[in-house]
């Protein structure tokens, strides 16, 4: 019964803490906890028609601590509601934390598969991790099963890092990928198979680092899309290289061909998924309409998180639809449902205008911005979208058409981020601005950049500018709805 008592205490703590939250940076249309710390999205699943997202949560503090699973639900991927905390740690199988994992609909039983975390020494350098299951028929209240742990230890050639199970069904079997590190500190993903979600057979290594891709691969996800297989991973320990891998840890993917019969995954090189400052631990689902949708943690370990002073910390990204292009590159685009957020539309220009600067001013803080620039007929090599705040901060998005790069500059000492973006003659920018985040989707998801920003003041100026003349086909912004009010 420890679990139930811990859940009640956690719920009381969060109900108390939410009364103390300062709203200045609270997001208007992103998933957050009512208060206190969150990190990875977990258990992203569609169950009995509704979308469920769980998240790593510490209900007692704005810092990371013994991990619980927070829980939100939505009918449309846009309007989310909090449900009671789903998992609390403290049982024999998950003494020091319910770490990341996934969810499946097992014939009407919502099943969570998660990592139990256990410290074995006081200074917390030594721990062990196992895999566990909790089930629910109503999708709200979960029971940990008596068979836990369903996988008690990793294979013998493994280090202590053994976490973040992602489970899916293929033909008659359940499959599970787990994030792992070998004894010699090579990041890798290992594969298990089961017929009943309780008894698991170890199949082997699905993929591992070639020596350049880090010492530990967290949060794996493996799925088929467009006739190929994609392994998404969040490696720790990659060195920065030019525009790539500039955050503390990365999230990216491998694309290739896979054989279930022989467990062989022939794949290409690791590619980064999002080039902003704050994107990690992504998880996907295939929805009832066959779309592959991804949600990530919209922060990065050890980065500047001023909302801790405000009684909360951490958020998830918008849901993004994933597709694979002809060059085996993933594109991420905001799901169509996000148009439900749109309130007032403001068209700054909707037909060809040639200028050096076009500006609009607004007091709205939840915005979607769309700009279509005709680069082919512009007399400039450099075009910028500048978002200036009344506090004096600004966020600058620059497209350098000569170097074919999109560059993001945000305030707060976070440094620049840039990503290659081909000059196709037209630049399409779709930007979602929330009170403390920006998500940029360029050229139909060819490049995305996600970052946390912390501006204050109630006025924003949106300016398209350049040192030469440019031609704009469309420049529109929408005031967006606050789903939490
Ligand atoms: C990724 C991660 C996971 C782990 C969880 C703990 O951000 O480190 O590997 O399960 O966070 O909160």
Automatic annotation (TrEMBL):
Its EC number is 3.2.1.26. Residues 30-334 form the Glycosyl hydrolase family 32 N-terminal domain. Pfam families: Glyco_hydro_32C, Glyco_hydro_32N. Pathway: Glycan biosynthesis; sucrose metabolism. It catalyses: Hydrolysis of terminal non-reducing beta-D-fructofuranoside residues in beta-D-fructofuranosides. It is found in: Cytoplasm. Transmembrane segments: none annotated. One of its GO terms (biological process) is sucrose metabolic process. Residues 346-479 form the Glycosyl hydrolase family 32 C-terminal domain. It comes from the Bacteria. One of its GO terms (cellular component) is cytoplasm. GO terms for molecular function: beta-fructofuranosidase activity. It is an enzyme of class 3 (hydrolase). InterPro entries: ConA-like_dom_sf, GH32_Enzymes, Glyco_hydro_32, Glyco_hydro_32_C, Glyco_hydro_32_N, Glyco_hydro_beta-prop_sf, Suc6P_hydrolase. Keywords: Carbohydrate metabolism, Cytoplasm, Glycosidase, Hydrolase. Belongs to the glycosyl hydrolase 32 family. Enables the bacterium to metabolize sucrose as a sole carbon source. This is Sucrose-6-phosphate hydrolase. It comes from Metabacillus lacus. The lineage of its organism: Bacteria, Bacillati, Bacillota, Bacilli, Bacillales.
């Amino acid at each position: 019964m420890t679990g139930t008592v811990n859940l009640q205490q956690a719920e009381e703590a969060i109900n108390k803490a939410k009364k103390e939250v300062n709203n200045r940076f609270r997001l208007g249309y992103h998933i957050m906890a009512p208060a206190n710390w969150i990190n990875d999205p977990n258990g992203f699943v569609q169950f009995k028609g509704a979308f469920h997202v769980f998240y790593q949560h510490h209900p007692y503090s704005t810092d990371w601590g013994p991990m619980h699973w927070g829980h939100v639900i939505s009918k449309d991927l846009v309007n989310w509601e909090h449900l009671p905390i789903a998992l609390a740690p403290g049982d024999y199988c998950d003494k020091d934390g319910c770490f990341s994992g996934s969810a499946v609909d097992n014939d009407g039983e919502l099943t969570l598969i998660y990592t139990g975390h256990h410290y074995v020494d006081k200074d917390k350098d030594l721990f062990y991790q196992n895999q566990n299951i909790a089930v629910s028929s109503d999708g709200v209240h979960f029971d940990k099963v008596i068979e836990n742990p369903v996988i008690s230890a990793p294979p013998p050639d493994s280090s202590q890092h053994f976490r973040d199970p992602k489970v899916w069904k293929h033909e008659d079997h359940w499959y599970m990928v787990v994030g792992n590190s070998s004894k010699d500190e090579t990041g890798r993903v290992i594969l298990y198979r089961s017929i009943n979600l309780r008894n698991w057979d170890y199949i082997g290594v699905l993929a591992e680092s070639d020596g350049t891709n880090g010492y530990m691969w967290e949060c794996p996800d493996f799925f088929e899309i467009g006739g190929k297989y994609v392994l998404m991973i969040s490696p720790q320990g990659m060195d920065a290289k030019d525009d790539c891998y500039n955050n503390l840890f990365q999230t990216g993917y491998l694309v290739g061909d896979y054989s279930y019969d022989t467990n062989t995954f022939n794949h290409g090189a690791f590619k980064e998924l999002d080039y902003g400052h704050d994107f990690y631990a992504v998880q996907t689902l295939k929805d009832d309409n066959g779309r592959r949708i991804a949600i990530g943690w919209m922060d990065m370990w050890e980065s500047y998180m001023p909302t801790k002073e405000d009684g909360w910390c951490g958020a998830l990204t918008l849901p993004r639809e994933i597709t694979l292009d002809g060059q085996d590159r993933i594109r991420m685009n905001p799901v169509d449902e996000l148009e439900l957020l749109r309130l007032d539309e403001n068209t700054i220009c909707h037909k060809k205008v040639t200028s050096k600067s076009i500006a609009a001013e607004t007091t709205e803080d939840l915005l979607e911005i769309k700009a279509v620039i005709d680069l082919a007929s512009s007399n400039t090599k450099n075009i910028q979208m500048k978002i200036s705040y009344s506090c004096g901060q600004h966020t600058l998005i620059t497209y350098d058409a000569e170097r074919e790069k999109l560059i993001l500059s945000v305030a707060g000492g976070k440094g620049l981020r840039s990503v290659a973006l081909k000059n196709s003659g037209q630049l399409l920018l779709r930007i979602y601005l929330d009170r403390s985040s920006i998500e940029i989707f360029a050229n139909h998801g060819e490049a995305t950049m996600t970052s946390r920003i912390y501006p204050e003041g109630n006025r924003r100026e949106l300016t398209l500018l350049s040192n030469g003349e440019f031609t704009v086909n469309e420049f529109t912004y929408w005031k967006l709805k606050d789903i939490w009010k």
